Amino acid sequence: MRMLKMRGVRNVLLASGTLSPIQAFTYNMGLNFGAILENEHALKQVPVLTSIVTRGKHGGLTGSFQNRKNVNYVSDVAEALIRVMEATPQGILVFFSSYSQMDELVATWKTMKSAANSTDTFWARMEKSKRVVVEPRAKEELAAVRLKYTQGVSEPHGAALLAVCRGKVSEGIDFCDAESRAVIIVGIPYPPIHDERVVLKKKYLDDLMGRKDVTHEKQSSTDWYQMEAFRAVNQAIGRVLRHKNDFGTVVLLDTRYATAKPEMFPKWLRSTISRMDSDNCALKTARFFKERCHLIEVSSFLKILFNFEYFQNSKVDYIKKQAKQCKSFSQAKKSFPSNPRDDITEITLEDMFSPANMMLEKKESNKLMSPSVKPSLSSVFSLPTNEDELKIKKWEQENDSQSTTSSVSDSNKRKFKTEIPVSSSQVSNQRSEPPKKKKLILLTRETLPEKYQKALDIPTSELTKGVSMSYENQKQFVATLKGYKATSIEWEEVFQRLRPIFVPEKPELFISCSNILRSEDKMKYLRKALSSKIY
């Protein structure tokens, strides 16, 4: 963001339903935003039921790393999932903190009996309620898994997709309507505590908190760690509501959500949150969908209608189409814009912020490579300088002997040329051409004195170094040039203000100041300097 600001971007608008927690987001951006707006949802009544499940059959649901393998916790999570699956129609998305947690729980559920006198495992009961599909680690297998899930959603019992926060499913793939009637999050997806980036970030924040010379707002490592987890939670929650006619439930299976600050959740979701145990969660979920059964029937019909192409086309073609939807970042479609203004050049961040090396462009006349130099700025003020012109001139002088043409380069000698007047009618009849490089044109046939040539070769960045300026003169110098850049003063006033600063001590620097002016003003500036016999 700082790099964008340095590039001259004047206005940045960030809009999303999942930027919460806002405080952490603005702090990490490193910028002071002029305005921060948090709104309720566009709908007056958000069609979402959010349940924080704090207790299961055997006690509190705490999905900490130390408690993940606890038998009571594993069985309570499975029981809560099954109850919600039985009460929810169509598709369910279940998100875990990590692949390791998901794999461990799935492996345990496949062997653990759901009751002492029952032969069914928890996994078998889940498969009776829904077609259960697990997100693969390999990206190549995701398209086939997505197809299985889509087919399962259209079945009478629906389907459940087990996935991971910050994974391929939680971001980048659009699940709407029947595909995301419920979003369940098991535990809190904290970043890996021993990850090198996490360790370094926490150490940096702790060091910053201990420094007394830092006066701006600080953030503790604990707050940052928690906010990173809730950002992933909010990203997953965003799967449940994709348009104004969508609806669904959100189930957070962890007692720690009950003690979280409201600011951790998006503003549009806060009014829908309630705390309960797993039994009440199942009852309220069933009631929520019973009230919307007519919408579910319409949604199912539309789902079958829009997926009719699956029965018309081959399975291979359908998988290919699903694979395109599984890309995290879809490529822009090629189109033929009717308006030329719609044709916007694209650029990557790497290209935008890469080091600006010397670019070479081919010269067809002598097959030499001429440097195209990046525009530079004066070290004192942001006005155009003559460093680029000097570099190109030096290159042309070095390669002049290799040129195939016998004519002398006009850039090697500064000459006064006569400008032929053009009538206004001729100008109007001429077709407008792209702007060309500006050249110095003086209305006389005489040649610039040699000392003027040398003065013009002085880099403008040396102006303040070549003379010992008082503080008042420095202020006058910078204010004059800034005023000229802002077009609040003309070249004549620049001439009058800079003259006592450089003349008579350093008249050559006074002449070099003309490089900062626009070409037409530069011509008048030098002409007046010659007539005034300043140098």
UniProtKB/TrEMBL annotation:
Region annotation (Disordered) maps to 392-436
Cite the entry's keywords alphabetically. 4Fe-4S, ATP-binding, DNA damage, DNA repair, DNA-binding, Helicase, Hydrolase, Iron, Iron-sulfur, Isomerase, Metal-binding, Nucleotide-binding, Nucleus
Q: Which PANTHER family match?
A: DNA REPAIR DEAD HELICASE RAD3/XP-D SUBFAMILY MEMBER, REGULATOR OF TELOMERE ELONGATION HELICASE 1
Q: Does the keyword ATP-binding apply?
A: yes
Molecular function GO labels = 4 iron, 4 sulfur cluster binding; ATP binding; DNA binding; DNA helicase activity; DNA polymerase binding; hydrolase activity, acting on acid anhydrides, in phosphorus-containing anhydrides; metal ion binding
- Compositional bias of kind Polar residues: 421-432
Q: What species does this protein belong to? A: Caenorhabditis remanei
Q: Which residues form the ATP-dependent helicase C-terminal domain?
A: 99-259
Biological processes annotated in GO: DNA repair; negative regulation of DNA recombination; negative regulation of t-circle formation; regulation of double-strand break repair via homologous recombination; telomeric loop disassembly
- What's the domain of life for this entry? Eukaryota
List the biased-composition ranges (Low complexity): 400-410
* Protein name per UniProt: CRE-RTEL-1 protein
SUPFAM superfamilies in the record: P-loop containing nucleoside triphosphate hydrolases
